[in-house]
Design a protein that fits this description.
The complex is a heterodimer. By secondary structure, chain A is of the alpha/beta class. Chain A is built from eight helices and six strands. In chain B, helix 1 packs across helix 2. Chain B is globular, with a radius of gyration of 15 Å. Classes of the chains: A alpha/beta, B alpha/beta. At the A-B interface, strand 2, helix 3 and helix 5 of A face helix 3, helix 5 and helix 8 of B.
Chain lengths: 178, 204
């Protein structure tokens, strides 16, 4: 698990390694530019079953079924995608106690150029707080493995979802189109 | 509704059947601890009414996700056959999932759609499948080659039996009447989920 050798790793290498070491095999995603290196690496690693879904809530249905069938899973999305899932969180994941692992590539802050993303970003943490869903905003590579590893273990042990908000401070974010 | 089923290929010949009676026909065929995921509302109420198998999952919310949930189970347990029971209105809410199922192509997944042409539980408002949308044609267009209307009960039986043979993914659409479900599922999501995991041999 996390050791000194991961200190120099890129953020997406740490995410992949931590998912693997926690036996999270099913990776669903709705594409995002910032997440692209992670998605590519996941596709290239046969340990994972990685595929895109048409909507984020569809992916959460798949993760829920997989968990009930004995397979751990994660969803990768961007901020605007998060805004499409409060219903499925409130009516499936939270009441059924599903440890869904939700990764959000954070848009809408620290240099956002799209008004829609900026507005929707403001709704994300209040929605998670209202639902009682734990969330961590990760800004530093040296904290990434610890937060992910401990939180994935906690999610499984306590049968509760968790959201990892990957800040532009960690990933570099998406820069204004020139 | 003078233009009923004008857009549907084959649907105009399909007999209008009853959801509870057809659900019973499905359950009676299950001999291998197949998982059944039933969508919100009448689809899961009638499954509940057929007897509470430990391998049944009853959705109390998240409209439209019976097929995605069933796909997740099918991925996690490739040796177990998984059946999704979904209504027309619910499927129309999440049509994209058909393209995902086609792309993943799980052999152990059967999707059964109850098409009564109405949002029955909310007051009987018409769905687009009552007039213009053909759910079988949509499914084929999404890449589910094995999609068919059930002309009557006998053909429904044949289609289900063939689908349970792990040649999927298969999708069967049955036209049904507007009779309400014959029972109502107990609303206890944690117990439903825990029973289902136990039924699948998974420690929750």
């Amino acid at each position: 698990m996390p050791d000194n050798s991961t200190q120099a790793a890129a953020w997406h290498e740490t995410v992949l390694a931590t998912l693997k070491s926690n036996d999270v095999k099913l990776i669903t995603y709705v594409p995002d530019r910032v997440l692209t290196p992670l998605i590519k690496a996941l596709h290239a690693e046969p340990f994972f079953t990685t595929f895109a879904t048409t909507r984020e809530e569809e992916a959460i249905g798949i993760l829920t079924g997989a968990w009930m069938g004995g397979m751990r899973g994660a969803l990768l999305m961007q901020t605007s995608g998060f805004a499409t899932i409060p219903n499925v969180l409130a009516s499936l994941v939270v009441p059924c106690q599903i440890p869904a692992l939700l990764f959000v590539s954070e848009r809408g802050t620290l240099g956002e150029f799209n008004l829609g993303q900026a507005m929707v970003c403001k709704t994300m943490r209040p929605v998670l707080d209202a639902l009682g869903v734990e969330h961590h905003t990760i800004t530093r590579q040296d904290e990434l493995a610890f937060i992910l590893d401990r939180s994935i273990k906690q999610a499984v042990a306590t049968q509760a979802p968790v959201t990892f908000i990957l800040s532009p401070l960690l990933t570099g974010g998406k820069v204004f189109a020139q | 509704m003078t233009q009923t089923k004008t857009g549907a290929i084959g649907a105009h010949n399909a007999k209008v059947m009853n959801r509870f009676a057809l659900t019973k026909r499905v359950v009676d065929k299950l001999k291998r601890e197949e998982a059944v995921v039933a969508g919100i509302g009448n689809a899961n109420f009638d499954l509940w009414a057929c007897g509470q198998r430990p391998q049944n999952f009853y959705m109390l919310g998240s409209m439209g996700l019976a097929i995605p949930i069933a796909l997740g189970v099918a991925i996690a347990q490739p040796l177990r056959h998984v059946i999704a029971l979904e209504g027309d209105g619910s499927l129309l809410m999440q049509l994209g999932c058909l393209t995902t199922v086609a792309m993943r192509a799980p052999k152990n997944l059967t999707m059964i759609v109850w098409d009564n042409g109405i949002y029955q539980i909310t007051g009987g408002q018409p769905t687009s499948s009552a007039s213009t949308a053909d759910l079988v044609a949509i499914s084929r267009g999404a890449g589910i080659a094995n999609a068919a209307w059930a002309a009557d009960e006998d053909e429904f039986d044949r289609l289900v039996a063939a689908a349970l043979n792990d040649g999927g993914p298969s999708l069967i659409v049955a036209r049904i009447d507007d009779k309400p479900a014959v029972a109502t599922t107990d609303r206890d999501p944690v117990r439903i989920r825990a029973n289902f995991m136990h039924g699948l041999g998974v420690r929750g």
